[in-house]
Amino acid sequence: MKKYRVIQWATGVVGSAALRGIIRHPKLELVGVKVYSDDKEGLDAGDIVGMDKTGVQAIQDIDAILALDADCVIYCPMPWDVDEMCRLLESGKHLITPCPYWFPFIQDQEAAKLIEAACKKGNVNLHASGCNPGGIAERFPLTFTGWCNRIDRITMTEYGDCRAYSSEGVVRELMNLGKTPEEAANNPYKEFLTSFWNQPIDLIAEGLGSEIITYEAKHDFILANQPIETAVGIIEEGTIALNRNRHIGKTREGTEIIEEQIWFMDDIEQTRLQSKMDIPRSSGWRIKIDGDVNIIVDIDFPPELSQEEHVAQGMSTTGFHLVNAVPIVCEADNPGIKTFLDLPMITGCMGTHVTDR
User: Fold this and answer.
1) What is the per-residue pLDDT across 63-77, written as a single tens digit (0 to 9) for each?
2) Which residues pair with 234 in a beta bridge?
3) Smallest Cα–Cα separation from 246: which of 156, 129, 179?
4) Which residues span the domain enclosing 51?
5) Which tens digit of pLDDT belongs to each residue from 139-159?
6) Per the domain annotation, does 318 fall within a domain?
């Protein structure tokens, strides 16, 4: 049985989940770990994630990572660097990432051309995966459209109590939580986020055999009525404590595709907010399809988990989705960007048995 040699690049929350997944995966062999801090350099990969020693030591030097003999890199830094990604691809290593290249051909044509050229040069593939986007936003809704004939609207909603989410950059800069309304309106990431959420909209339209002809973005929020303690510090009174983003695409045939996120810094009762929004759940995702068949699919973790455990498992879904994609991405024909439309089903892996049929 072939084992795929894998490098884990970055060991933050998602990267650490991916690293654990690589170590446990029966078809993968860990051969390298790229870290960014002096504290982690030289540590055994197992020590970084609380597992048995692997014999693979973490390093910071990029050239040393590029020189490793590996089939694939799972690339999870924040922020990412498209030129760095292209160097990895040109070195002949497949690349799997949660970074925003799920379907970049319309929203980020320049990056798509750079990545495609690097893939061709290295004779390898790039696949962007994850949780949302990377699954909930596009892969799963498209699966359920197979039960439908006429589709009027597809809505993907993420509900998130973010008090235990410890990534300050994501929470404060991308989610706008803790910002004043004026700061949110002038957020330099605003245009980027529109592109970010339009990518899964474009992918779904492509999967339906259509294209988006109009895009719309809506942003609503509710302010805190008192200071709120969170994993990223205090959300001050009068700043955004609930943020609702909606990105809407309409296809040529009239189908609406909606990506919606409701992120908040309170429990479901919202007593710390200046007003309330009707939220059916404190965390998780809802996929809703309206048409000649009406479908609602709710995805969540068990209610007995703590909020910290909810967040940890949410981050793990991203890391494990990346890891489980390695064998099929490495074996995919015709080098280039591979979306969910180009690949077979990605599944978990518990063994190496294959039925002779």
Assistant:
1) 999 999 999 999 999
2) 229
3) 156
4) 4-129+325-337
5) 999 999 999 999 999 999 999
6) no
